[in-house]
């Protein structure tokens, strides 16, 4: 982890750059996969999975007996932990807002809106170096709270043709409708176009490798919505002398172990503190299982020394981190200055892994600076807003002149007439 | 406009298909434009605009004096109409919801969220066959209400190097920060990467031709958000004997005049009624300025006769129209059954052009069936949701076992330790 001291503001733009994982060759490969699945359905999925995953289960759909069987494989401790996380995530996400209202915008003109659940949603749950059953909770709980009718899930099978037991257990607990053992871009394609086995969905959620991310970008052409383009995970920590260097080091490592392409950034005004934290990282990394991944990730990472906490906050807002830990004095006050971030962890006891698993907030968050314009997943992500209007005869007769003048100015005569024909009828 | 009688349910899928305007050659052209603007900035924009638009203004930025000058060009009637529309749109959009709350999800664990304005937004205002100053109102009013710091606007100049006066007037009225005379994919590229002249933005809104739509899809790779992938406009009308055939015909024509690729669909249980409405269309189209466009559009369109209004509502939910008019008895009740639509117009007096211009709802809506998973533009579209959490020492010590068990089950040891190190400290 390199230390960068007092970089000039004009150099910040280069410091906030993240490497892009997407490439033209990935785009071409994925376009071919989409096209094959669109044309040949299950047969194409079978062929592609054979090629990339070296494993094709006999049937893609997870059976009820498989779902029942996994219950035996989950330890009581893990069941209790999942139940606690489930409760907290549910409690936080049920405060979603249906935004239902109607107002009279103009005499006789009543405009309203409401959020309506998206009927069919698809969840993609990756299973690379680690099974991610926590992501099932993070996606299926808000989907259920939103009222989605069908919750479809795809996850790649491991070498023996099964999906990790905890992933299936979580899916079953959360009321996922149907689960398929399909991974990669072919899973995204299956949920986009529908196949003999997999139903077509209206919106697809979830993280994944670069093929999955590329596929999610390409399917927008087919009118299917996505949660966000998710890239490698990242954490930015702002720390001052009130922090605990061992806590901060543990947090930076918890992010670094995600993948070799993860990035962690430490911002502080004290080079001495940065040194202490790096020392702690060196100590704590020694016996870490995923040490090699963490090392690779730390090589992309930096401790940046800035003039003040104010400047750290400015830098962070420019960087727009997926996760932001504020380990500073008056962290609550500092949080009020945050403009761009996925999720903010305030104070010494709010570790990122609390939000990753169990505090209640969602861990599906925008990465790579996308937090400037994107939000993390919320219950509202599983709904869409529809507007409604009803207009009385008096309302249209009084609003028509406005519509007619504007339509005429835009040269859209038929638009003008649609209002005029009603006005004339009322005026009769 | 062809009449289709009692299509079987298994054939509905083919009836709801819309032609895709995007193609591989458009994708390639747009990729080249993005790459050129990214590398060469203003110079590339100048070159590309010269090639496609045959018009490059001396300076891209609209000057204050230009903005002042257009005020003289707007008739008092149009000023009054724009003011009325502005008021109604503002009134409807200010009911946005900041979704700010904090709850204690678990003893000592406080999770909250709030919506925060997106700092810099870009609005694309097309100017093809018709100037679309109404779109300025629909995008800039919610952007301002959301609290966006910078509202950038791009619109293609006409042959004489100017932007339509009403468009500039509306932009000025709504507080757009800066306006540039740039159109097409190069405008989207400019706002994505930033150039010597045009600032980089965080999210881009607005309709456009297939180059603009393709560019909006491609820039998602660079972490810039978009409102939605917008395609050709469309209207579905469900009508029964309580409708006014002349009103319905006027509405269908108001949509048909948008562009030759627009689609209008009439659903009814009565072939006789369909005949009356088509007769009215034939009468009303005769002296329409944009008759040729409307004719072309009607050739893609259909009147579909179904068994019941129930069936019409089912078909409409499958079709997921951008605009839906319910010209039926008890239209308010029918509206409650709508699952997929951009904006719904209830009853005989709610014409689509009311929503297009002046009733208050937004006219930037999902097309091509995307209303199944996408929403129209709302004030919240100009904000993002950030989650926050603070945890007390007691909170982390009691939640840590849950986090530790789950992290261990996912094989993420450093995640486990970040919770454990805090728990141990508290337990000391």
Care to describe what's here?
Two copies of one chain form a homodimer. By secondary structure, the first copy, chain A, is of the alpha/beta class. Chain A folds into three domains: 24-227, Nitrogenase molybdenum iron protein domain (Rossmann fold); 233-375, Nitrogenase molybdenum iron protein domain (Rossmann fold, 3-Layer(aba) Sandwich), CATH 3.40.50; 392-426, no CATH class. The first copy, chain A, contains 16 helices and 14 strands. Chain A has a six-stranded parallel beta sheet with strand order 1-11-10-9-12-13, sandwiched between helices. A five-stranded parallel beta sheet of chain A has the order 6-5-4-7-8, sandwiched between helices. In chain A, helix 2 (24-53) packs across helix 7 and helix 4 packs parallel to helix 5 (133-146). The longest helix of chain A has 30 residues, at 24-53. Chain A is globular and about 85 Å long. The model of chain A has no long low-confidence stretch (mean pLDDT 94). Chains A and B meet through helix 4, strand 2, strand 3, helix 9 and helix 13 of A and helix 4, strand 2, strand 3, helix 9 and helix 13 of B.
Specify which chain pair forms the largest interface. A-B, 131 and 129 residues
Sheet having the most strands of chain A: 6 strands, parallel
Query: Could you give me the name of the CATH homologous superfamily of the largest domain in chain A?
Result: Nitrogenase molybdenum iron protein domain
Within the CATH hierarchy, at the fold level, what is the topology of the largest domain in chain A? Rossmann fold
Helix content of chain A: 40-55%
Average predicted confidence as pLDDT of chain A: 94
Number of strands of chain A: 14
Calculate the terminal CA-CA distance of chain A, rounded to whole Å: 79 Å
Gyration radius of chain A (Cα, Å) is 25 Å
**Given the helix and strand composition of chain A, which structural class is it?**
alpha/beta
**Shape descriptor of chain A:** globular
The side-by-side strand order for the widest beta sheet of chain A comes to: 1-11-10-9-12-13
């Amino acid at each position: 982890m390199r230390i960068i001291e007092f970089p000039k503001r004009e150099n910040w733009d280069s410091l906030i750059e993240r490497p892009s994982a997407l490439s033209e060759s990935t785009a071409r490969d994925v376009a071919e996969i989409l096209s094959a699945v669109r044309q040949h359905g299950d047969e194409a999925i079978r062929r592609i999975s054979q090629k990339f995953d070296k494993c094709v289960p006999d049937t893609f759909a997870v059976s009820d007996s498989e779902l029942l069987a996994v219950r035996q494989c989950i330890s009581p401790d893990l069941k209790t932990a999942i139940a606690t996380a489930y409760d907290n995530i549910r409690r936080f996400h049920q405060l979603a807002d249906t935004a239902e209202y109607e107002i009279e915008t103009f005499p006789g003109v009543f405009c309203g809106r409401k959020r309506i659940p998206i009927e069919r949603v698809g969840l993609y749950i990756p299973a690379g170096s680690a099974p991610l059953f926590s992501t099932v909770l993070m996606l299926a709980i808000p989907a259920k709270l939103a009222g989605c009718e069908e919750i479809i899930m795809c996850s790649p099978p491991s070498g023996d043709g099964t999906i990790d037991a905890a992933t299936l257990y979580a899916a079953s607990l959360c009321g996922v409708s149907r689960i398929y053992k399909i991974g990669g871009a072919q899973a995204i394609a299956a949920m986009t176009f529908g196949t003999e086995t997999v139903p077509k969905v209206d919106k697809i959620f979830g993280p994944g490798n670069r093929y999955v991310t590329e596929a999610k970008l390409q399917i927008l052409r087919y009118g299917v919505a996505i949660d966000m383009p998710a890239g490698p995970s990242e954490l930015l920590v702002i720390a001052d002398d009130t922090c605990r260097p061992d806590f901060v080091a543990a947090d930076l490592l918890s992010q670094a172990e995600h993948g070799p392409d993860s990035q962690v950034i430490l911002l502080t005004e004290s080079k001495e503190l940065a040194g202490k934290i790096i020392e702690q990282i060196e100590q704590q990394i020694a016996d870490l299982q995923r040490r090699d991944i963490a090392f690779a990730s730390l090589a992309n990472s930096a401790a940046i020394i800035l003039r003040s906490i104010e400047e750290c906050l400015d830098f962070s807002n420019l960087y727009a981190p997926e996760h932001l830990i504020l380990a500073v004095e008056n962290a609550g006050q500092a949080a009020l200055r945050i403009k761009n971030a996925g999720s903010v962890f305030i104070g010494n006891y709010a570790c990122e892994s609390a939000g990753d698993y169990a505090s209640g907030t969602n861990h599906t968050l925008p990465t790579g600076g996308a937090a400037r314009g994107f939000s993390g997943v919320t219950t509202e992500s599983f709904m869409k807003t529809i507007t409604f209007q009803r207009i009385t005869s008096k309302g249209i007769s009084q609003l028509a002149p406005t519509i007619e003048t504007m339509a005429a100015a835009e040269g859209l005569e038929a638009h003008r007439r649609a209002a005029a024909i009603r006005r004339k009828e009322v005026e009769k």
